[in-house]
Amino acid sequence: MSGIILAIESSCDETSAAIVKNGTVLSNIVSTQEIHQKYGGVVPELASRAHQKNILPVVNEALTEANIKKSDLDAIAFTKGPGLLGALLVGASFAKGMAMALKKPLIGVNHMQAHILAHFIDNPQPNFPFLCLTVSGGHTQLVVVKSPLEMEVIGETIDDAVGEAFDKTAKIMGLDYPGGPFIDKFAKDGDPSKFKFPNVNIPDYNFSFSGIKTAFLNFLRKETQKDPDFIEKNKADLCASIQFTLVNILMKKLKKASKELNIKEIGIAGGVSANSGLRNTLLEEGKKLGWNVFIPEFEHCTDNAAMIAMAAHYQFEGGDFETLSTSPNPRMKFTGSK
User: Fold this and answer.
1) Which residues have CB under 8 Å from 307's CB, separation 6+?
2) CA atoms of 10 and 242, how far apart (whole Å)
């Protein structure tokens, strides 16, 4: 069973809608909220208001671009969690209202599972099983993907996510929000071996990034006491060095899992997978280790409804639907199989 699905993503600060037909994405409209930049982070109440303003035109544009009428839809999907509660409520309420009005089934999608299934939007696609390193602002997970609906989280961060580490170290340096892309930008002109930061070794396949942030803060405090212009003088080298450290931690666990589980189909997903340092390192290591490496297109790395639509496509085939009494879950866990 397959069909035409409208998917809505509103977990944080992107309002997005997409149409998928029989597993093919026909449209993917994303409206990014720029209002948060002046506050140095996402303001939940402002995000919710922006979603309310943007959701109707975004959905209309997705339907128009896909040349699909509302009556053609076979199901309505939405991000159930995790995310900001107010933001999730906007998408969930809109989806529930539309499903009720059209008398169509409702599909609730886990945001983290959707990031992984972004690999199936375009070709080439990984074979099962594959290892996926899912890296975003709020999550860092290492997942064995056995099928679109059967996954196992084998490792995750015990504190900060790697995206938080990028953004927080950028904020310490006085870079604009979101800081991760600025670190990536300046790192291209820097020396990654100039400054050394601790490479934390957590047991098994788990990660930890809070200690690196603290070490980076203490290092800059010490150096700026000697030279107030230290950060500006060494911006590129600092960005290259911290990026190298964070990427190295991710790669260390990924290589360990690949070797011990004997899996050479490797993918990355989530917003941080747009980082050029991570992408290039993964491709280089993949060549050395004989990996088949899969990296989604940039527009499918950050939050978008196409990935929600792809997850909904597989859930639709599996008959996994929600009742209209469902509610979003901002702390929704992702451990793999339901």
Assistant:
1) 9, 114, 115, 117, 118, 121, 300
2) 31
